[in-house]
Design goal:
This is Imidazolonepropionase. GO terms for molecular function: imidazolonepropionase activity; iron ion binding; zinc ion binding. By secondary structure, the chain is α/β, with parallel strands linked by helices. 37% of the residues lie in helices and 22% in strands. Bound molecules: N-(iminomethyl)-L-glutamic acid and fe (iii) ion. The site of N-(iminomethyl)-L-glutamic acid has 13 residues, from helix 4.
Length: 422
């Protein structure tokens, strides 16, 4: 028999995130509204009086009084590197003193440092760290998150990371979407076991790409956890040719491409994402109008990561221009040791203040369009039939999320209709 899982009633506003991004009502707002949830899915959304007549809160397993509050879809954080070990807070200080991200990386810090810490961590430590980050994320309203591997750069550790990601998904109410990112950096010879590579530091990038293609991708596919394959196509990382080789090899084995593109410099990653039919092209700080047009034509979701630009002191991606060009812009945290914020609320504040999105557009970018970047069109909306992943704010409107920058306005989180926070 169907179960009336929950009724959320009396909300000042339900932001359904079903409107057009550039249109008058991107957030698809309903005022004085209720959401009825049957078997974990939205059964009705509409005026409280109408919804509660058919679905009485008294008969629900959970009745949530949202009087004077706003209800939004749970956030879909479509880009993170949340599985790692170690601490790089001192690099944050170094960056404040003027050291660049590229300099840290070239000196064996940055990603390389996290690789050393991650390789040295036990399976339990990797899982425990990730679960801790998921706790913070869900408290800030995230109900689905993508997590990448890429701090192993060898087959064994890449598989261990994906295993931790898979186990975290089983154990935590937040849904975790796994991405393989063996091509996150070219490993440094100094970090490799004796004799693995020949002479030369760093390790030859082309040789490493062959390892990713011949060794890592087949092992990852055999393991059966990863859904996407991502590449860092940028200055100091992989060229377009190397990235294409990895993404094509992954796609042939069923891994959907994603690309870190035009973050540190313009290197052609956005056009590559369009060429290979990637689910998303991410960062895009240096993307041109032509790049954006190519992404729109190829139906690739641009994922903007304003927290990273904030931390790097870099210019932000042109979010406003992309929305105006008709792109289905998504916004995500990029949570990683170089961008240590799990908060989608903070990302949406930056998307508004620094990239020119309206609060309603930022909401859609953090929910429905994040789901789009993960090929999960049923998530990130409050719509009949969709999984009831919802956040109830301690504020009367979605505008209070970016308005209250630096403050968490999420009071209650429902995952498939069941309270997991609040
Ligand atoms: O998306 N740019 C490449 N990868 C991450 C940073 C990872 C790190 O610095 O540990 C990013 O920003
Ligand atoms: Fe990233």
């Amino acid at each position: 028999m169907a179960e009336l899982t929950a009724v959320v009633h009396g909300a000042a506003e339900v932001a359904t995130a079903t409107g057009e991004l550039g249109g008058d009502d991107p957030a698809g707002l309903r005022s004085d509204a209720a959401v009825a949830i049957v078997d974990g899915a939205v059964a009705a959304v509409g005026p409280t009086e109408e919804v509660t007549r058919e679905y009485s809160p008294e008969n629900a397993a959970y009745a949530v009084d949202a009087s004077g509050r706003a209800v939004i879809p749970g956030y879909v954080d479509s880009h993170t590197h949340a599985c790692f070990a170690g601490d790089r807070s001192d690099e944050f200080e170094a960056k404040l003193r003027g050291t660049t991200y590229g300099e840290l990386l070239a000196g064996g810090g940055g990603i390389h440092r996290t690789v050393r810490a991650t390789r040295a961590a036990s399976d339990d430590e990797l899982l425990g760290n990730l679960l801790d980050h998921l706790d913070v994320m869900v408290a800030h309203g995230t109900t689905t998150v993508e997590v990448k591997s890429g701090y192993g750069l060898d087959t064994e550790t890449e598989l261990r990371m994906l295993d931790a990601i898979d186990r975290a998904d089983d154990r935590h109410p937040v849904d975790v979407v796994p991405t393989f990112m063996g091509a996150h950096a070219v490993p440094r010879e100094a970090d490799e076991p004796e004799g693995r590579y020949g002479e030369g530091d760093p390790v030859n990038a082309d040789d490493y790409v062959e390892r990713v293609v011949d060794e890592q991708i087949p092992a990852v596919v055999d393991q059966g956890v990863a859904e996407f394959c991502d590449v860092f196509c940028d200055e100091g990382a992989f060229t377009v040719e190397q990235s294409r080789r990895v993404l094509r090899a992954g796609a042939e084995r069923g891994l959907t491409p994603k690309v870190h593109a035009e973050e540190l410099a313009h290197r052609g990653g956005a056009k590559l994402a369009a060429e290979v039919g990637a689910a998303s092209a991410d960062h895009l700080l240096h993307a041109t109008d032509e790049d954006v047009a190519a992404l729109v034509d190829a139906d690739v979701t641009p994922v903007l990561l304003p927290g990273t630009a904030f931390g790097l002191g870099a210019d932000y991606a042109d979010g406003r221009g992309m929305v105006d060009a008709g792109a289905p812009v998504a916004v995500a945290t990029d949570f990683n040791p170089n961008c240590h914020s799990q908060s989608m609320g903070f990302a949406s504040a930056l998307a508004c203040v620094e990239m020119g999105l309206t609060p309603a557009e930022a909401l859609v970018a953090c929910t429905r369009n994040g789901a789009r970047a993960l090929d999960r069109p049923d998530l990130g909306v409050v719509r009949e039939g969709a999984p009831a992943d919802l956040a109830v704010l301690d504020a009367p409107s979605h505008v209070h999320v970016p308005y209250s920058y630096g403050v968490n306005r999420v009071a209650t989180v429902l995952k498939e209709g069941r309270p997991v926070v609040g």
